[in-house]
Predict the 3D structure of the following.
Amino acid sequence: MATEDTYGDAYGGGQGDRFRQGTVPRDAPPPPRRPPGPPPAAPGGAAPTESPFVAWLRAPRLSPQPGVWAYEHRPRPAQEPGRVPGRQLVGGALIAFLCGWLLWSLLWNGYLGPYWRWPLKAVIPDDWDVNTPEWYEASWVYYALVVAILATVFGRIGRWPELWRRYGTPVLRRLTAPPRRLVARFAPGLLPPAQPEQIPTDKLMLRAGSALAGAVVLWLLCWNGVLSTAWLWPLYQFMPDSWRGSIASLSYAAYTYYLLFTVVLLRVASRIGLWKEARRRWSGEPAGRPEDGAGPRARLAPAAPPADPADWPGLRAAGAHDAADRLAAEARAGLMNDVDYARLDRAWQTVQARPSRLAAFTDTVLRHGAAACAHPSGARDLPERLARHDLVTRQVRLGRAADDERNPYALRGAGCALDPAVLGTSLLAVGPPGCGKTGRLVRPVLESLCLQALAGRAAVVAVGAAGAGLAPDEAFDVVVGIGRPDSAYDLDLYGGTDDPDEAAAILAEGLVGDLAAALPGGDSRRAATALAQLLGPYRAVHGRFPPVPELRELLDGAPEAVDRLRSALAASGQDALVRELDARQRQAQRPGDAGPVLADRLALLDRPAFARFFGTDDPDRTFSLRALEHPLRVRVDLPERGHAEASRLLARLVLAQFTECATARADRSLFACLVLDDATHTVTPETVRGLARLRSANAGAVLTLRTLDDVPEALRSALLGAVGCRMAFSGVTTWDGARFAEVWGKEWVETRDVTDRQVIAHEPLTRALHVLRQVVTGRAVTTQSVTVRTVERERWSASELAHAVPAGHAVLSVTSVAGETAPPVLVDLTG
């Protein structure tokens, strides 16, 4: 398949120069009619004038470890803090309040003497009489301080802040939701933005000062009566009539109300003016300080507010201000989507590697805006998305970590995601049919890789049964429907190579790789040698490799086909290849020759349904995996119905070609990934070795299995060890669970053993009380002894994997290419 003019260096791959002077990418399609796929900003989190794309782009992203959804992730402590039960919390707070009230009542009524008023009398002048206004004001301040001290002490004892956070804050949030919606509609500038750290310092300080000035002006207007006495309505409404005749009671009530009014006014002003962020900027504290135990990645918070990514600071730093202004304007106008941003960011990285392309890149951006450097297909998004994607971090969200005691506390409730950094170690998923492997794993991962291919960051090959619903045809550049008369593309059996030995090794792996243990020598080397002895001579004569019918004839040793090939070789004077052909004929006479086995397997592809396929005379129609250097989206549909054995053979062949072609790429800047929906009977010893080599080639594979029994027993442990990401769905068998439990290992945990011991009384009165208690409760009097031990146990046992994983859940562990690991986590795939 010709691809030289289709995929260029705008994506960091291929040999074309799409930014060369005078070469402009094809005209891009019109911009999307709606904002892109990224999730919209939270209600009230940003002003309505800000496009959803800009809000998505400015959102914080923090990933403490591999496999965590970084978009708006909030880290949690590594250890679970002691959570007080609700009844105990409410009871303790009520008791603390009553105790504080009792102590204040005893102080106020003089039961504890006048000693607590001595500090007041020591600081006020002697000429302030008890009935003077000065006394009332000074005593009110002193009593307020005493009450504040009592409230602080008993509040800490009764855990009032925790009670407010648990029960008061949700109620207050629901009560203030309607006013916030009104403010967001008519005065959006009064609401705090979702990312205050993105506001420039001068604008932030101006906003903080304006809020303070507004609060002072409002207070003066209220105090001087300019706004009438409406602000005093709560005081007049709730103050008892008996207090109006007492100067002391009226003064205390009025000054208390003034204080509360001032606190509320300052609180509102601080929210509007972002005083917290202003104080952080003024003091020089770093932004986004994580909690303890959030992980090494979470501690990498910048000391200064980061630059606004919507302004394209990289382009501005390089002097491309016009291009940055054009892209920033289209981003704020909603004419850019997440694929555009990722694609342009990738193109900019290419320009940074080769600065000579800056002028052409700027010219292209000024012409086409967000549609510049478009994918050769012209697509700027997929026809539909079913999963949540974040192309800034290249992640796809699979679900959330369940709130289960077997999950680490720091990960409970966090989103679980996959990205090329972990897919580069390859992923193996095992689960019975109907558990959600295709819909909840393969489809989201395939969507993510197709989006990254549109952004020029990846190349993806999806292999599955026809009608499996991996993704619609419009989401791919190449759809190879093997056995379908309407298929526009064919599959190259030889992997696009010109070397007969390499082509023979790949084809032998696909044909008899699953029978390697039964072949002479215990591997497929003799089968590869037999194929090479035929492919080399045939290519020397015809300039191409043989199609399936002719190769089958040669493997069967048909005299006419062999004689024609020998005559052509002799006529061209290629004596070395004639000797190769003679050696093949001699070996065919020996017992245990691999030729008949190869011919029998090849007969599965020499069927009328495949008559239009596996040809070698139409290179424009034939797709080869050598095109992985370009951002291709390829889907290979296998003829599952009626040709199950042929489908397995082809899946094994594509897997062998992928591992060979991905590692042989000259340009590895694109992440290449193979998604194999059903890897039944496709795993061979050479496959396991190939999966291990993908990690260093910026490539990976996603394999799904119904059970590990579909893999030869000798390769099961090796397969689990070769992949870095492992996923066990609900419904796996105990013997499959035992394999996962073994590879996930053990951990040290703290256990508590509680022992009940019966209490034997020796005194008559105590014995009588014990007898009475036993009659009433029906249980003997016992005491408990608790033993705390640290023991080593399996992270997930085989029984737990088989019986304790709920439907719609899976246990996932990931490893990044850099070597970072994450423990197995129970993931709710519906969350």
